[in-house]
Design a protein that fits this description.
This protein is α/β, with parallel strands linked by helices and 293 residues long. The protein is built from 13 helices and seven strands. The strands form two sheets. Strands 1-5-3-4-2 form a five-stranded mixed sheet. Strands 6-7 form a two-stranded antiparallel ribbon.
């Protein structure tokens, strides 16, 4: 088998355009990378540091020219931070010839939309969450790309792209429920399409009811239609309509459940043993609760 050197000499291989750049000339562009929690990023970085400490190597990071000088990281944010920490901890990452600290890089070729796509297609080997993908898809939409155009580039259907954009456009209360893992992304998307601005309060109430039955997160089974009497179904609808119309949310504490109005700035002054009892009391006495101090 021919070696790399032999293949280069025979014209069967070509050197890649890799460049070693001093670490101080490599910069992170604020807000460019896919959003993630500090805990998740920290775990990825420390994993890379442990890999380096064990003698492992990392692939080159992709960079683009920075107008003020130096380069911006396009792909490899965790690798970049991992190398910095490895150096700070005294690991042998400096060049043995001159003792300086370089990072092996390769130039990214493409425009601003291509750079956003690179986040999805690479993601440094990690799986992006629906919320992270949705944030990047919103950027691509702002470039004038249609759901069909986006889907073709990232191997998703146009409908799936539309769903993720619905999630990306949802209010912060909906996104926080998804981020916490208490509400699946698809359930949040479905609720957002159905209830619009009231999606957050509806999901919070459904979650409170699920937790009251011993669940830790909302599941499709928890809100699936069950065979119930028409009168019971009508009562459930009245409860849900009340919550939507009043932008109300059911809260849960050690003492029990209570209802808080969204736009009336009111809340119940006593606690109830179940979410439904709290809602029923709120419907009955909706005008008697004083505004909170």
């Amino acid at each position: 088998m021919a070696s790399n050197r032999q293949m280069l000499d025979q014209g069967l291989a070509k050197r890649a355009d890799l460049v070693k750049i001093l670490i101080e000339h490599i910069h992170v562009e604020e807000g460019f990378n896919a959003p993630e929690t500090d805990e998740d990023f920290e775990a990825r970085v420390e994993g890379i540091v442990a890999h380096l400490n064990a003698g492992g190597k990392i692939p080159p990071i992709e960079v683009r020219d920075r107008p003020e000088g130096g380069v911006f990281v396009v792909d490899g944010h965790a690798r970049f931070e991992g190398m910095r920490r490895a150096a700070a901890r005294g690991m042998p990452v400096h060049d043995p010839k001159d003792g300086l600290f370089y990072l092996l890089t390769m130039s990214f070729v493409g425009n601003d939309a291509d750079r956003s796509l690179r986040i999805i297609t690479s993601a440094e080997g990690r799986t992006l969450t629906p919320l992270q993908i949705a944030a990047i898809l919103k950027r691509l939409r702002n470039f004038g790309w249609s759901p069909k155009d986006i889907g073709l580039r990232i191997n998703l259907s146009a409908e799936r792209v539309r769903q993720l954009l619905v999630l990306g456009d949802s209010n912060s209360d909906v996104q926080q429920l998804v981020q916490s893992g208490e509400v699946p992304a698809q359930m949040a998307i479905d609720a957002q399409r159905k209830y619009k601005e009231a999606a957050g309060p509806v999901l919070k109430t459904q979650l409170a009811i699920a937790k009251a039955s011993g669940k830790t997160r909302l599941t499709p089974a928890a809100v699936a239609d069950k065979k119930v009497k028409a009168s019971e179904l009508d009562t459930e609808r009245q409860r849900l309509d009340f919550l939507i119309e009043n932008l109300a949310v059911v809260h849960h504490g050690d003492a029990g459940y209570w209802v808080e109005w969204g736009f009336k700035e009111r809340q119940q002054t006593k606690f109830y043993p179940s979410p439904r009892e709290a809602i029923d009391a709120a419907i009955t006495q909706r005008n008697s609760y004083p505004a909170p101090a």
